Amino acid sequence: MDPITFSIIRHRLFRVVEEAVITLKHVSGSAITNEGHDLMVSLYRADGSLLMGGVGFLHHLTSASEACKAIIRRFEGDIEEGDIFLLNDPYTAALHTSDIYLVSPIHHEGRLIAWSACFVHVFDIGAMNPGGFAPDAQDIFTEGFSSPGIKVVSRGRLRQDVWDTILNMVRGPEMVALDLRSMIACNNVARERMLALVQKYGVETVDEACRLLIEQSERRLRERLTELPDGRWQSRQYLEAKGETYRVVLTMTKEADRLIFDFTGSSPQSPYSVNCTKWASLGGLFAPLFPLLCYDIVWNEGVIKPITMIAPEGSIVNCTRPAPVSVATVGAIQSVNNAACATIGKLLAASERYAEEATSVWHANHFAIFMFGRNQRGGLSIGILTETFAGAGGARTFADGVDVGGEIPNPISRMANVETIEATFPIRYLFRRRLVDSGGPGLYRGGTGMELAIVPHDAPDGGLHYVISGKGAKFPQSDGLGGGLPGAPNDYVWVHTPAEGADAGRFALALDAMPGEKQPVAWGVYPLMGKDGLYVRWNGGGGIGDPLAREPAAVAKDVVTGAVSTEAAAAVYGVELAGTAVDVAGTERRRTAARRWRLGREAAE
Fold first, then answer.
1. Which residues, in sequence order, are CB contacts of 351 under 8 Å at separation 6+?
2. Euclidean distance between CA atoms 108 and 358, whole angstroms
3. Residue 603: how many CB atoms within 10 A of its CB?
4. Where are the domains of the chain?
5. Which tens digits make up the pLDDT trace of 195-219?
6. 281: Cβ–Cβ under 8 A, 6 or more apart, which residues?
7. Are strands 244-255 and 427-434 parallel, antiparallel or unpaired?
8. What is the mean pLDDT of the chain?
9. CB-based contact 69:106 (threshold 8 Å)
10. How far apart are alpha carbons 442 and 588 in whole angstroms?
11. Helices of type H across 28-159
12. Under a CB-based contact definition with an 8 Å cutoff, are residues 214 and 222 in contact?
């Protein structure tokens, strides 16, 4: 194929995905979708293999591929033009039941030539808790309805019986219907644009371009791996649920032009819903691999071929049915993502050529807080605090991480503005700002996270309830690199405001200024009623390099801008300040003492 035609078709495929994403966002009425960008759209070949990975949460690129393949197996001989299938069973392909995949075959003159697939986290799935996150679920059966594959649109016509059955099982059926219709519209646009491409260039030419595109991605990744040093790198992540500690252990081996991710040594599966299935773990390790190793390579099946995953059955990263998994996306999957990011960062840092591509772990601990209750207009509101998508950038080998800088697994993630959330839920923000000392210290500092506090406001029922699955307040999870320290862990505090003097905290600008008993919370369903408040802080990114090697002037600037406290500047970075200026002599004395203490401790050990 001539290179110009190949390049045009490649760019047209990108445009197909982009237009489908725009359609999905514009039709959806959910903040988690059109504000937080908790979505994914991709194209797949006729056999279900990944052709063109789109933006959004990258965990879903490989899982949606498996969803297409599962539909091909289940509906062999019954896949017709205009069909759309729904799948959300975690033990078949999905990450958890709330993440619904709609996959659509694309036919040309009666021949199946491709698939489009998309997902969103739907408004509700009928789980024991509104919104789908069920930290107290004992098995998959209490986490909402799940389907290994069902046809919802047949030959272009909606199957009303299936549609009515699904909406009969959920809270807020109008919003769930809007979620599903946005995905149907997305797939329709993807199919129309793909057929327009085929009609212009011919099905054989487009198919040849797709085949070459996959071969090109595989060749380029294998070439890149060959340029990187062979070796083994390890990472260990800890997470907590209801007082129990679990670990995700990863050994990544790089041999010639292939990578092996081995999770042997990870904890057995949990009775709590932090588990994930093998398809979810596969997506979790690819989520950072795509942008870190394939930033200039098309994300498709060619990238998948050089990668092998080993995940022991019955472990927290490959649980067996019917183990609960509703918190998987912010539980074990997130830890798999962190561990993969850490080991890939170590691999890149070991290469002189690619060292500048290395990064420490970004935003390692999502705090998916789902709120539910009657809103100020008397209607039902279910949704997430989208600040969980705001993230924090990990440090790089040449620069600090980006404060509130998003996350690697979702290049387009973002948080909604305060007004959007206050218009959706009967709450009021007391404050929302960068969190001091949250970024991991290092020669290059990790980006900061944030902190916020909310109280009920104009709530017809006196407030609402929220689901919290913190699993990380005890352990820092944003690992540093090359001597850099991890970002601060998350924290969640229920402020019990006394009836007397309650108004004193109406405009509090800090946790300490909020009156009442402060109770740490991390897992379960809690009320936010009356004058009580909820305080949340989330982790910063990991640092890179020795904090004692950071330029004192950079530390002083961090203190002035509020990223680092004066106390941490002295205790962690060894920088003495005289007002806002660096005390050069004092800094030298403090850093010398710190280095001597390290040497003494090492000698003692």
1. 227, 228, 229
2. 44
3. 7
4. 3-219, 374-545, 547-604
5. 999 999 999 999 999 999 999 999 9
6. 263, 309, 311, 317, 318, 332, 333, 336
7. unpaired
8. 95
9. no
10. 17
11. 31-34, 60-74
12. no
pLDDT, tens only, 354-402: 999 999 999 998 888 999 999 999 999 999 999 999 999 999 999 999 9
Which amino acid would we find at residue 412? I
Instruction: Calculate the alpha carbon distances from 37 to 58, 121, 337, 483, 599 in Å.
Output: 11, 10, 18, 34, 48
Which pair of tokens denotes residue 68?
A: 């297409």
- C-alpha to C-alpha distances, 288 to 333, 389, 409, 410, nearest whole angstrom: 12, 15, 6, 9
Three-class SS of residue 166? helix
Q: Which residue has the tokens 């440090």?
A: 395
* Partners of 380 in beta bridges: 374
d(CA 392, CA 402): 6
Find the helix or strand (DSSP H, E) in which 9 lies. helix 3-27
Please give the Cα distance from 54 to 52 (Å, whole number).
Answer: 6
pTM of the model: 0.95
Q: What is the DSSP string of 319-338?
A: --TT---TTGGGTHHHHHHH
Query: Which residue, among 77, 25, 66, 1, has the nearest Cα to 183 in the 3D structure?
Result: 25
Tokens of 31: 């903040």
Q: Which residues contact 234 (CB under 8 A, 6 or more apart)?
A: 249, 250, 251, 252, 343
User: How, if at all, do strands 258-262 and 307-310 pair?
Assistant: parallel
Whose tokens are 């009356």? That residue is 530
Helices (H) and strands (E) in the chain — how many of each? 13, 22
The C-alpha atoms of residue 304 and residue 259 are separated, in whole angstroms, by 10
Band of the pLDDT at 113, cuts 50, 70, 90? very high
Amino acid letter, 286:
F
Query: Would you state the pLDDT for residue 408?
Result: 92
Q: Rounded to whole angstroms, what are the CA distances from 315 to 278, 324, 460?
A: 9, 13, 44
Q: Which helix (H) or strand (E) holds 432?
A: strand 427-434
Beta strands in 470-521 (DSSP E): 491-496, 517-520
Which helix (H) or strand (E) is 197 found in, with range? helix 173-201
Rounded-to-integer distance, Cα 316 and Cα 247, Å: 8
Beta bridge partners of 372: 382, 465
Q: What is the pLDDT of residue 603?
A: 59
The span from the CA of 228 to the CA of 255, in Å, is 9
* CB 198 within 8 Å of CB 324: no
Sequence-distant (6+) residues with CB within 8 A of 339 are: 235, 236, 237, 248, 249, 250, 285
